[in-house]
Amino acid sequence: MASHSSIPNKAVIAAVAALTLCAFGRVVDHGWLQFDDPLHVTDNPHFFPVAWSSLCGFWLRPYEFLYIPVSYMLFGAECVGSRLLTGGGSCAALRPELFHAVSLGLHLANVLVVYRLLGRLAAARWMAAAGAAVFAVHPLQVESVAWISEQRGLLAALLSLFAVERFLRWLELPGVRSPWRAESVFGFALFALAMLAKPQAVTTPLIALALGIACGKQPVKTVGMALGPWCVLATAVAVVTRVSQPVDESMAPVPLLARPTVAADAIAWYATKVVLPVGLCAGYGRSPAFVLADRWTPLVAVATAMVLAAIFFLSRFRAARLPAAIFLSALLPVLGFVSFIFQTQSTVADRYAYVAMLGPAAAVCLALGQLCRRGVVGKWLLPATGIGIIGLAVIAARQTSTWRDTGTLARHACMIAPDAALPWSLQATHELAMRNGPAAMAASRRGLEIDPHDAESWVKLGSACALAGDYAEAERAFGAAKASVLTDRQQVGLGSNYGRFLLDTQRNTEAVQAFLAALSHQPRHVAARQGLGVALTRIGELQAAIDVLRSVLEDQPANAGAWVGLGNALLLAGEPREAVKCYGQALLIDPNDAAVLANRARALIEVGDLQAVRSDVERLRRMGVPVDDELSAAANEREPGPAGDE
Q1: What architecture is domain 540-646?
Q2: How many C-beta neighbours within 10 Å does residue 176 have?
Q3: What are the residue ranges of helices labelled H in 198-296?
Q4: 66 has which bridge partners?
Q5: Which residue has the higher pLDDT, 633 or 52?
Q6: Cα distance between residue 12 and residue 130, in whole Å
Q7: How is the chain split into domains, by residue range?
Q8: Number of other CB atoms surrounding residue 341 within 10 Å
C-alpha cells in the first residue's frame, strides 16, 4: 500500500477533479452531433417515450446490431431526466446538456477509481494523484468525454475499473479468501455489466491479472485461478458479440499473416499520440489497406516488435512491463487481430484508448517513485510534473472545443486528416442537415475521390444532388450506391434516402418499392416507414398508408412529420375530423409550421367549422404567409344563422 502523505486525501482528489473540470467543463454547453447521436439517442424509437417494454427490448435483442443493454438503460434514464428538467412531455425533443453532464460525471468517477488503483502502486499519495491527473486530462480522452454516443465507453470503463479495484481488494483480504466474499462477487458482477455496456471490456481480466501480480499480495497462480470465471465469461461474450455484429462485406479481408503488422502499426500510433498528443480528430483513415500500402509500415512494425521484446524480455526494462501490459491489454480487441466494423474507416481511434490510458498513468506514477528512490527529487520534480500535467490539460481543453457541434468537428477532422474519407462524409452529413446542397455535393465527391467504393458517400452525394435540384446526377449517384457491396445498415440508408428522392421526383410507385427494400433489412426503421406511408398515400393506398403511419407514431409519438402524413391520408380517405386532430398534434410539436396550419384549415372547411378556419387563416396572415383563394373565401364566408333568419 502507498505510504501516507502530508497532503490530505480529500484535497488531492479535489485538486485532480478541479483540473479535470477546467479541461472538460465547457463540454456541458455542446450540442448533439450528427455522428451516431441520432442512432443511439435522438432518433432512437425506444426513447419516444421511454417505457419498460422498450427498455426490456434492449435486453432481448441487439439494437442496430449492438448488444449493449446496460448503456441503453443509462441513455433511457437520461432521456427521462432531460424531459423532467425541461418540463417536456414523455415524447419531447431531447436537450444535450444533461447527457454531457453525465459524461463528465462518469469521467470524474473513472478518475477517482484510477486514483485508488494507482494508490496501490505509488510510493506517495501525490504520485498516485499525478498518474490519475494524466489519465484525467490527456487529450486522447477528449473524444470519449465530449461525444455523447461514446458515453457507453465511459460507463463500461467505470464498471471495468471498479471491478478490478474490488478484485484487488479481495486479494488483500487476510486469511481464507472465499470466491463468495462480497468483494469477489461484486467485482465479477461489475465485470459482467461492463461487457453489457461495451464489449471492449472483455479484456478486463488481463488488466486485473497485471495489477494483481504487480501488487504482489498473492502468488501468480492464485491470481490467475481467481480470474478463471472472468475469462470464461469474457470468452462467451466475445463469441456472442462476434455473431451478433455484422461483418462489413465491403471491407477487403485482411490476411492473417498481415494482421500482426496492422496491430504493430496501431500500437506505434497510440504510443506516439500518448507522448505527443497533437493532430487528434474524429477519423484518421488508417484502415488496414492504408496501413499495408504504406512503405514505412514494415519498418514501424519491426521497431514496435523490438521495443515490446525489450520491455518484456530484458530485465533493465522491467519497470515498464506493468504499464505496457495494461496499455496493450485494453487495446487488444481493436488492434486489428480480429476485424471490427469501424476498421473499414480506421483501425485506430481516440476512444479506443480510454481505458488503455491507465497504462501511461501507471507509468507516470511508477517513474516518479523511481526518481524519488534514486534521490532525484530536488525542488524541481513536483513543479515540473505539475507543469506537464497542466500542459496536457490546456491541449485537452482546446481539443474539446472542436467537438462543439457537427460542423466544427467535421471541419477540424478535414483539416487534420484530409486524405481520410470519414471526415468528408461527416462534413457532407452536416451540410445536408443545413440544407446546403452544393457544399454537401463537394464534400461527398471529395470523400469518393479518397474511397470510390464508399457506399455511404454515394448515398450522401445522391441526396445532395437531389437537394440541389440535379436529379440526373442524383440518379447516377444512387445507382452507384446500389452497385456497391452493402451491409444491412447501408441497405437501409440507401433505400430510405433513395425513396425520398423518388418522392421528390413524383415517382411514387418506385418510392414504395425503395422503402419496402429498406424495411426488408430493418422492419422498424422509422424514416423508411414514414416515407412508405407518404408514398402509399400518393398512389391511393390510403388504408395501408394509415396503418403504416400509425405504426410510426406508436414508436415516435412526437414525430410531427408522421402526424402530418397521417392527417393527409385521413383527409383523402374522407375522415376530416380525424385529420384535424392529427394536424393539431403536429402543431403542438411545431406551432409555427405554416404548411400544417394551412392543411388543418382545409380539413376544417370539410368539417364545416368556419370559425376555426378563420382562426387558422388569421394565424397564417400574422405569420406573413400568403393565403390562397380557397382559404380566404372560407374565412370570409358568413356563418349560417338560426332557421328563419335572412
Answers
A1: Alpha Horseshoe (1.25)
A2: 6
A3: 204-215, 220-226, 228-244, 259-275, 288-293
A4: 63
A5: 52
A6: 10
A7: 540-646
A8: 15
